[in-house]
Design a protein that fits this description.
Blueprint lengths: L3 E6 L3 H12 L4 E7 L2 H11 L3 E5 L7 H10 L5 E6 L7 H6 L4 E4 L4 H13 L6 H12 L5 H13 L3 H11 L4 H8 L3 H15 L4 H10 L4
Parallel strand pairs: 1-2, 1-3, 3-4, 4-5
Helix pairs in contact: 2-3, 7-11, 8-10, 8-11, 9-10
Length: 220
């Protein structure tokens, strides 16, 4: 099996160097390139076709949020993992809504960063239930259209089959595909098929957005 190709996009040379050193020691991961800002990241991503992009948020010329949106708009986009200092960065929720597959704190332990990349590649969530809750709470804070969003979320989830609903609720709790399979007594490929159907029916692009729909519908 070929190694997962990783592109590091960050304007801090020390961060880029540390990530390259950290990931370079993993047999299944390969840092194929670096970029100094979002614009450079888009160019490098088009050239290198990475499987995963580690994306900083605050960068000159083009920030990580806009770069993520641009990547998601292209054909066969890579997985995007946002790198951020969570408590200080209000843009992380927007990045996830734009299609990023999760985020990492910049002070995350090295082994957890490696594990998170592997989870994303496998299609599993990389957000713990507590982190998902914090993201949802931030997204919902100050929202004057909560009632309408709750109505729309409830209608969307009502369109799911019973099994798809079970899977959506499990995703809302932060469970991985393997954990859902064990809980619902299904095979992992079957769970992946249900997850794909949930994505299509709810009109979402990542598992955090499913958790948000579940929360909006009052089912968490």
């Amino acid at each position: 099996m070929s190694a997962t190709r990783v592109l590091v996009v960050d304007d801090d040379a020390l961060v880029r160097s540390a990530l390259r050193l950290m990931l370079g020691g993993q047999a299944d991961l390969e840092v194929v390139g670096e970029a100094v800002d979002g614009r450079d990241g888009l160019t490098r991503a088009a050239e290198l076709r990475p499987d995963v992009v580690l994306m900083d948020i605050r960068m000159p010329r083009l920030d990580g949020l806009e770069a993520t949106r641009a990547l998601m708009a292209g054909p066969q986009p890579p997985k995007v993992v946002v790198l951020t200092t969570f408590d200080a960065d209000q843009y992380v929720v927007e990045a996830l809504a734009a299609g990023a597959d999760g985020f990492l704190l910049k002070d995350t332990e090295p082994q957890e960063i490696v594990a998170a990349i592997r989870k994303v590649v496998a299609g599993d969530p990389m957000l713990s239930p507590s982190v998902t809750r914090r993201l949802i709470d931030r997204l919902r804070s100050g929202d004057d259209e909560a009632a309408e969003r709750a109505k729309q979320a409830a209608q969307a989830i009502a369109a799911l089959t019973d099994r798809e609903r079970d899977v959506a609720l499990a995703i809302g709790r932060g469970l991985s595909n393997a954990e859902i399979a064990a809980e619902l007594h299904l095979s992992v490929p079957t769970v992946k098929a249900h997850v794909s159907h949930v994505f299509d029916k709810l009109g979402v692009t990542n598992r955090v957005q499913i958790a948000i729909r579940v929360h909006d519908a009052g089912l968490d």
